[in-house]
UniProtKB/TrEMBL annotation:
Compartments reported by the entry: Membrane; Plastid, Chloroplast thylakoid membrane
Keyword field contains Cytoplasm: no
Name the record gives this protein: Photosystem I assembly protein Ycf3
Main location: membrane
Organism: Tisochrysis lutea
SMART domains: TPR
Purpose of the protein: Seems to be required for the assembly of the photosystem I complex.
GO cellular component: chloroplast thylakoid membrane
Mode of membrane association: Peripheral membrane protein
TPR repeats: 33-66, 33-66, 70-103, 70-103, 118-151
Entry's family note: Belongs to the Ycf3 family.
Keywords assigned: Chloroplast, Membrane, Photosynthesis, Plastid, Repeat, Thylakoid, TPR repeat
NCBIfam families per the UniProt record, alphabetical: PRK02603.1
BP GO terms, sorted: photosynthesis
Length: 171
């Protein structure tokens, strides 16, 4: 059932995207950038990360709008994060945030990476490094929660349980 719904959503998105490309006033480059972005999203959802990256990089060459570029960069970060290349994922998430500071999902993903690194450092008994990473995770989760207060409930609970949330901080 879920696969059927996913296919329906993918097909619906494709049809709507094609209509938008035809009716919206946009330059040839903008339309081409959107096509690359759309193909990248499709490849990414199918798990074909290499093809997705190719399309995202092509979209970046053509896309001039900072807001749209931020989502391309964010998706590139997702791919690197999913493949375990956390330093590259962080690099792309930060580039996305430089263009669009209101991307709570990028802030959340940065926090998740730092939390993961903190947990790994803690397991290795590298407690100072772990604490530094947990502090970074807390900082990014607080920013994400401020932008999307109804999201990231687990992060909110983690902040409370670990004492990383000051009494005067309210989301």
């Amino acid at each position: 059932m879920s696969q059927k719904n996913d296919n329906f959503i993918d097909k619906t998105f494709t049809v709507l995207a094609d209509i938008l490309l035809k009716v919206l006033p946009a330059t040839k480059e903008e339309k081409q950038a959107f096509s690359y972005y759309r193909y990248g999203m499709s490849a990414q959802s199918n798990g074909d990360y290499a093809e997705a990256l190719e399309n995202y990089y092509e979209a970046l060459k053509l896309e001039e709008d900072p807001f749209d570029r931020s989502y391309i960069l964010y998706n590139i970060g997702l791919i690197y994060g999913n493949n375990g290349d956390y330093s590259k994922a962080l690099e792309y998430y930060h580039q996305a945030l430089d263009l669009n500071a209101r991307l709570p999902q990028a802030l959340n993903n940065i926090a998740v990476i730092y939390h993961y690194q903190g947990t790994r450092s803690s397991e290795k008994k590298e407690f100072e490094i772990a604490q530094s990473n947990f502090d970074k995770a807390a900082s990014y989760w607080k920013k994400a929660i401020r932008l999307a207060p109804n999201n990231y409930i687990e992060a909110q609970n983690w902040l409370k349980v670990t004492g990383k949330l000051n009494e005067n901080e309210i989301f």
